[in-house]
Amino acid sequence: MEEVHGGAFGTHTNGHDLARKILRAGYYWIKMESNCYQYVKRCMKCQMYADNIHMEPSTLHNLTSLWPFSMWGLDMISPIEPKPSNGHRFILAAINYFTKWVEAASYTNVTKSLVTKFIKRDIICRYDLPAHIIIDNGTNLNNKMMTELCEQFKIKHHNSTPYRSKMNRVVEAANKNIKKIHDMLPYVLHGYRTLVRMSTGATPYSFVYGTEVVLPVEVKIPSLRVLAEGEVDEFEWVQSRLDQLNLIEEKRLTAIYHG
Q1: 177 with 136, same domain?
Q2: Which residue, among 180, 190, 187, 166, has the nearest Cα to 51 in the 3D structure?
Q3: Fewer CB within 10 Å, N side or C side of the chain?
Q4: Rounded to 5 degrees, what angle do the CA atoms 113, 115, 118 make?
Q5: Which has more confidence, 86 or 168?
Q6: What Pfam families would the database entry show (predicted)?
Q7: Do residue 81 and residue 152 come from a single domain?
C-alpha cells in the first residue's frame, strides 16, 4: 500500500482507486479495500493537500470521440504558485477524449508558436493527425497560427465558449490533477494514465498499449505476472504481446458503450 500510494510513481489516490490499482498489479488480501481506505485517511500528505469537497458533484456530460486520438482538448494551466525553481509557471495540457490519455509540458511562457509546436511534436508526431481539436478562447491558444495549422492538416477547430464551459470539461478534470504537483509532472502523468477512468472503465495506458503498466512495486515484490513472464521464452513472450495488441480494438469498442 505504501509503495503504490506514495512511492515511485505513487499519486496519493483515494482508497478505492488505491485498492483497484493494487489488485490490477496482482496482489490481494482480505479486507484490502478497507485497509486502503484507512491508510489514505492516515496519510499526512493527503490530509494537507487533498481537495475538501463540501457539495454534491454535478453530472458530467462530456463530448465523445468514436476512435482513439481523433479528438483532443487543449488547455493552459496558469499561473503556478508558488513559482517553481525552474521558472516554469505555465503548463500546456492536452487530453484525448477517447482514451483519456494526457500529454503535458511546462514552460516559462506560452507563446503562439510554442502551442503549434506542442501540437505537432506531442500529438501529431506521437499519435496521429487529429480530426478535432477543442480549445478555449485564450489568445495564445486561439490565434491565426492555430487556424493556419488546422487548415494545413485539415483539423476541425472548435472553441469552448465561456457560456458552455462543460464543453471542455474533460480537459479541466485532467488539469485538476496535473496542476497539483508541477515539479513532478512526468510522475503525475504516469499516475493519471495508469488509473481507471470512470467514463471508460479502464486505464488510459491499457487503451494505448494494450496491457497494464508494470508498477515499481511489482519488481520489488514480484507479482504473479512478473514471475510468470520470467518463465516464458522470447518467442512465447512476443506471441503474448501480439495477442494483447490484436485484442486492443475490443477494449476500445467496449469503452464506447461503457459511457
Answers
A1: yes
A2: 180
A3: C
A4: 110
A5: 86
A6: Integrase_H2C2, rve
A7: yes
Q: Is residue 64 part of a domain?
A: no
> Where residue 54 falls among pLDDT bands split at 50, 70, 90?
very low
Domain that holds residue 246: 206-258
HEC profile of the chain: CHHHHHCCCCCCCCHHHHHHHHHHCCCCCCCHHHHHHHHHHHCHHHHHHCCCCCCCCCCCCCCCCCCCCCEEEEEEECCCCCCCCCCCCEEEEEEECCCCCEEEEEECCCCHHHHHHHHHHHHHCCCCCCCEEEECCCCCCCCHHHHHHHHHCCCEEEECCHHHHHHHHHHHHHHHHHHHHHHHHHHHHHHHHCCCECCCCECHHHHHHCCCCCCHHHHHCCCHHHHHHCCCCHHHHHHHHHHHHHCHHHHHHHHHHHC
Phi, psi of 4 (to 5 degrees): -70, -35
Verify that 82 and 189 share a domain, yes or no.
Answer: yes
pTM for the full predicted model: 0.70
Instruction: List Cα–Cα distances, 77 to 47, 67, 182, in angstroms.
Output: 24, 26, 10
| Torsion 41-199-122-245 (CA) sign | positive
Q: Are 20 and 99 in the same domain?
A: no
